[in-house]
Amino acid sequence: MKEPIISVRNLVSKYGEETILEDISVDIFPQEITVILGGSGCGKTTLIKNILKLCEPHSGSVKIFGKEVTNMDEAEFNRILEKIGMVFQNGALLNSINIFENISIPLEQHTDLPEELMGKIIRVKLNLVNLGKAEYLLPAELSGGMKKRAALARAIALDPVILICDEPSAGLDPLTSAALDDLILKLKTLLKMTILIVSHELASIHRIADKIIFIDKRKVLFSGTLKEAKSSTVPELATFFRVGKFE
Ligand SMILES: Nc1ncnc2c1ncn2[C@@H]1O[C@H](COP(=O)(O)OP(=O)(O)OP(=O)(O)O)[C@@H](O)[C@H]1O
Ligand SMILES: [Mg+2]
To answer: How confident is the model over 101-112, as a mean pLDDT?
Structure first.
């Protein structure tokens, strides 16, 4: 069996006195698409924040590329972050600069590439997400689907080994959402990325997921393949696969 690329053990996460995640253990395997599933407020974004050290875990272990990161110093962790692309739940493009400039940010922060080469890389990524003609537009001039794709282009600017997307297709129409799924599948097959996605969209999950992690009542109630998830007897998960939402 392959070694996990991200491995979380007995993670406890709290905001103040409130426990959000209790004893979470999950493995993310290389070159697979893992979907984190669970009702609103169950702690999906919190789990991602703990993995990325945007939240300090209360206790437990997070290993990335085999290395414990919870007590790692900032400089060493930054080298790990360079290999991780992130699309945040609320897009987070900078509104005052155009799309080309937005995508140049990680390249300027993490590389010393000459401007011309940087420009070429940015255009390759924009073409990959079908935004080749939008480089001079401001975020406000893009549709919802275009914004998501621009955020994705920025997340993959540095050719990350791991891509983490928090609800990339939320609020998109079915066609735009399907196009985004195709793109995510392309990143997996062509660029061999390991992809961790939070999603509630049943159709999308059927198209892209290799593995499912289901979080409820602060715990992981299921983790396994998509096929196993579809025949799971965990009641909340069975309901989700039947009706496409949590009741
Ligand atoms: N910075 C914070 N301070 C205090 N409580 C927070 C903070 N961020 C999230 N929470 C709480 O933690 C719980 C989990 O939030 P989280 O954002 O991880 O949920 P989620 O599963 O991502 O939900 P959604 O599907 O709506 O995005 C919620 O009850 C939320 O109110
Ligand atoms: Mg969330």
So the answer is: 93
Using a cut of 0.85, tell me whether the model's pTM lies above it: yes
d(CA 115, CA 244): 46
Which helix (H) or strand (E) element contains residue 104?
Answer: helix 99-110
Cα(233)–Cα(213) distance, integer angstroms: 14
β-sheet bridge partners, residue 27: 7
Total of domains in the chain: 1
Alpha-carbon Rg of the chain, whole angstroms? 18
Given a cut of 90, whether residue 62 has pLDDT beyond it is yes
Please name the residue whose Cα sits nearest to atom 1 of ligand 1.
15
Residue ID of nearest Cα to ligand 1 atom 17: 45
Domain range spanning residue 141?
93-159
- Which one-letter DSSP state was computed for residue 43? S
125 inside domain: yes
**Which token pair is 11?**
């993670």
